[in-house]
Specification:
The protein is an alpha+beta fold. It has helices spanning 2-29, 32-51, 54-69, 77-87, 93-104, 163-175, 177-180, 182-189, 210-219, 231-250, 270-293, 300-326, 328-334, 338-365, 377-395, 401-438, 454-508, 512-543, 556-566, 568-574, 593-610, 666-676; strands at 108-113, 118-121, 141-147, 153-159, 202-208, 551-555, 577-581, 588-592, 616-624, 627-635, 680-686, 689-697. Strands 2-1-5-3-4 form a 5-stranded antiparallel beta sheet. It has a 5-stranded mixed beta sheet with strand order 7-9-10-12-11. The radius of gyration is 58 Å and the shape is elongated.
Length: 700
């Protein structure tokens, strides 16, 4: 029961659709009579426009000039030859034939001079074909143009449907002939204005029959206006199409009609649009001829044509409705033929372009990766085989192979020229870099791709690095030598000067107490000088590796505690607070106990000399993997404005003014002794925080 009801409603929807298509079909065919009436008026108006146009009337005047300048009677033969030569100009002959010859061939004319003699006339079989004052009525248009002895023109329209308008236009042209005539303009372009003479003492009878005039206008493709359908008819047609399309979109909204989702309305949109375009274009092209030929009457064929047009409109709109139902994006992806085709074409095109580009790049850049240190027989063989394959294909083309060979030669020339120019540019970059390096500019950077010269980039980088290191080492060595001489001179001279001074004072001093004070000072300065000389001797031996190590098992933690205990009095004087952290397990390493003792002593003495009094000193000894590491951190009493990497060099002090006592060798000796025992020694600064780190490998 329910199925029957649904079928009935669907049948009702089909009837409504047919009704919607039939109504505009009837409306549009009912307009045939009005259209035919308007087409007739348009035809008459177009005839008026064409027959009174300046182009049409101007040709009558131009013909007078052409006939006059072509006359060969009397003494005008030479001028006529010159005029004909101008018309034979290659650039203007075709235009002249199209513009004038076709007009003259449809024209009847007779030319009379001032004495009444006929100078020229139409080539016809009887005198009745020549236009005269008496037979002008036989023509659709008859024009009489006369020129007096001075060349002043006068014109009369003897016959024509639009004589008044034609006469006005003809006189306007005669009065402005030099500005409006196409013939004059042609001769001006040819720079031969002097050849075109104004007619004198001539009367021209020019006439054209109705059939000739119609043939002329048809040849000019301007007579088609007689079939022109009025614009309002197309506006009505468009309005009816919009109504049908709106009905196709709105009718499915009535759910009880169960229409809009049929298979016929689910086809890809391209199909109904193509059908719509073909049907509408065909109908528009046929309607002009059918309405005019049937004089406004309607036949069954016309009804079916317009029924098909509006059916195509309804179908296209109904199929388009799904765009709004599922969304444009989804519709384009799933319900059109264009999307998959476009995707396939794009994919295929990208694949083809990529493959061609990759192939060419691979072939082209394969020669950038040549290793001239090895044999490249495979590369050469590949190049020869590729060239052989191309030439083989070219030779198979027989005669067509010659252009192909020329094309291949041209392409090969440009490829080889490009490759050679690339090599030349890359070689120039390499040569420029080496020249700059030769001039001492060692920071040259080659960022360009050098192709086959790319291996040289790495070698040049190695050379630059080696030169920079050598220069840096040499500069540093020279600076260290200078500093060594300066610092050693200063540090040795200070106690030596004091000793000399106090010896002189001791010689002259009689007071025993003062003499004893001088002797004490001399003892201190002598010991100071002894320490400096011993430290200098010791660092020299360490630097030259001329040191004998007595390696034993040393407990690093206990040795450090012993050193700290022996220097405790100095720590109390500076009121330094040591915060020490030691590991729970023993940390035994194969070391020279005396040298290691000296390392710890120098580090702690350095803390006593340069740490800010009444501050904390952090000491941490820890086991990290297979190493025992000593960390010492203290706050400096002076600004740490030195290079942490250079503080361990010989005779370098944290006190740049060298006012404090010391040789400047403490950290240098500590570092040398650490490295002799295959350990690590590192100094860091962070603000006013001084950090020292010593690491030794431990025994398992």
């Amino acid at each position: 029961m329910l199925d029957t009801k649904l079928k009935n409603r669907h049948k009702l929807a089909v009837v409504l659709i047919i009704f919607i298509i039939m109504i505009p079909t009837i409306v549009i065919t009912e307009q045939y009579g009005n259209v035919y009436y308007d087409m007739t008026e348009i035809r008459e108006a177009s005839e008026n426009i064409e027959q009174t146009s300046g182009d049409f009337m101007g040709k009558f005047v131009d013909i007078c000039y052409i006939l006059y300048n072509s006359e060969t009677d009397g003494g005008r033969r030479e001028h006529a030859a010159e005029f004909a030569e101008c018309l034979e100009n290659e650039g203007y002959r075709s235009g002249y034939d199209e513009y004038y010859e076709s007009f003259i061939s449809l024209l009847d004319y007779r030319v009379v001079d001032g004495s009444g003699n006929v100078v020229a006339k139409t080539m016809a079989s009887s005198d009745s074909s020549y236009p005269t004052e008496q037979n002008m009525g036989e023509y659709a248009i008859g024009v009489v143009i006369s020129y007096d002895a001075s060349g002043r023109p006068a014109a009369v329209i003897r016959e024509g449907e639009y004589k008044q308008v034609q006469s006005k236009e003809l006189n306007r042209i005669l009065n402005n002939f030099s500005e409006s005539s196409a013939l004059v303009q042609w001769f001006q372009v040819m720079e031969s204005e002097s050849v075109l003479e104004t007619p004198k003492d001539r009367t021209y009878y020019l006439a054209m029959r109705a059939e000739s005039m119609e043939e002329y206008f048809r040849s000019q493709e301007s007579w088609g206006a007689e079939y022109c359908v009025p614009s309002w008819f197309y506006q009505v047609m468009l309005f009816l199409m919009v109504l049908v399309a709106a009905a196709a979109i709105l009718l499915p909204k009535r759910k009880n009609l169960h229409t809009g989702d049929e298979k016929i309305f689910r086809v890809p949109i391209e199909i109904p649009l193509i059908v719509f375009s073909v049907v509408v274009t065909g109908a528009v092209n046929m309607v002009e001829n059918r309405i005019f030929s049937q004089e406004g009457s309607v036949s069954g064929v016309d009804t079916w044509i317009w029924f098909g047009v509006f059916a195509a409109v309804y179908w296209s709109a109904a199929c388009t409705r799904r765009v709004f139902v599922i969304g444009p994006k989804k519709y384009m992806k799933e319900c059109t033929l264009t999307a998959p085709v476009v995707r396939g074409v794009k994919k295929a095109w990208k694949l083809l372009v990529r493959k061609c580009k990759d192939g060419f790049d691979y072939l082209y850049h394969s020669f950038d990766n040549l290793d001239f240190a090895e044999k490249n027989n495979k590369t050469i063989l590949r190049l020869v085989l590729i060239n052989f394959g191309i030439l083989f294909l070219v030779t198979c083309m027989w005669f067509a192979g010659i252009p192909a060979l020329i094309f291949y030669s041209v392409v090969l020339f440009y490829i080889l020229r490009k490759y050679f120019n690339d090599l030349k540019d890359k070689y120039a970059v390499l040569l420029k870099a080496t020249n700059q390096m030769a001039q001492g500019k060692l920071d040259v950077e080659i960022s360009e791709d050098l192709g086959v010269f790319n291996p040289f980039k790495a070698e040049i980088a190695k050379i630059q690095d080696g030169y920079l290191k050598a220069v840096e080492k040499e500069v540093k060595s020279q600076r260290m030598k200078t500093d060594l001489i300066t610092n050693v001179s200063h540090d040795l001279k200070t106690p030596l000067t004091a000793i000399i001074t106090y010896v002189n004072l001791l010689k002259e001093e009689k007071d025993e107490k003062k003499r004893q004070d001088y002797i004490d000072v001399l003892e201190r300065k002598s010991l100071r000088l002894k320490v400096l000389i011993e430290d200098l001797f010791e660092i020299s031996k360490a630097s030259s590796k001329n040191v004998t190590l007595h390696l034993v098992d040393v407990d690093v933690v206990n040795l450090f505690k012993q050193v700290r205990l022996e220097l405790s009095e100095k720590f109390k004087e500076t009121e330094l607070d040591f915060r020490c952290t030691y590991p729970d397990e023993r940390a035994v390493a194969k070391l020279d106990s005396q040298k290691t003792y000296r390392i710890f002593e120098n580090l702690l003495v350095n803390v006593v000399k340069y740490a800010l009094p009444k501050t904390r000193v952090y000491v941490k000894i820890e086991r990290i993997d297979e190493e025992v590491v000593l960390h010492i951190m203290n706050i400096s009493a002076t600004e740490l404005n030195f290079n942490a990497d250079e503080i361990t060099e010989r005779f370098v002090r944290g006190d740049a003014a060298r006012n404090t006592e010391g040789s400047g060798l403490g950290l240098a000796i500590a570092k040398s002794f650490t490295e002799l025992q295959k350990g690590r020694f590192k100094i860091e600064t962070e603000g006013d925080l001084f950090k020292a780190e010593v690491a030794f490998s431990v025994e398992e």
